[in-house]
Design brief:
Layout (H helix, E strand, L loop, with lengths): L4 H17 L4 H27 L3 H5 L12 H4 L4 H19 L1
Helix pairs in contact: 1-2, 2-5
């Protein structure tokens, strides 16, 4: 995933959450949440990675409806989704440990 993917995947996460909220029963809602959870973790990890590089504000300011300079750092800095999901999971574990 690259920095340019963040806004797209945030919209997809919102769509999945909306589908889960309108699910006919709790089992279906839980299933939808579980299916999208790995992607959600990768999105959270991407946000943390971009923030660590000082690129998060630039990414959030992108207007994907306009042509972009695809050679900007936001577009060319990319990460493996498995690494991003692991980053999100380790961050959540660190927060949980700190709160106990």
């Amino acid at each position: 995933m690259s920095g340019a993917d963040l806004l797209y995947w945030r919209r997809k996460r919102d769509q999945w959450r909306s589908l889960a909220e309108r699910a006919p029963d709790n089992a279906t809602a839980d299933y939808l949440h579980a299916v999208f959870e790995p992607t959600s973790q990768a999105i959270d990890g991407l946000e943390r990675a971009l923030a660590g590089l000082g690129l998060l504000e630039e990414v959030l300011a992108l207007d994907l409806r306009r042509p972009q300079d695809y050679f900007q750092r936001v577009w060319s800095t990319a990460f493996r989704t498995t690494d991003l999901a692991a980053l999100a999971s380790s961050h959540d574990a660190t927060i949980a440990e700190a709160s106990t």
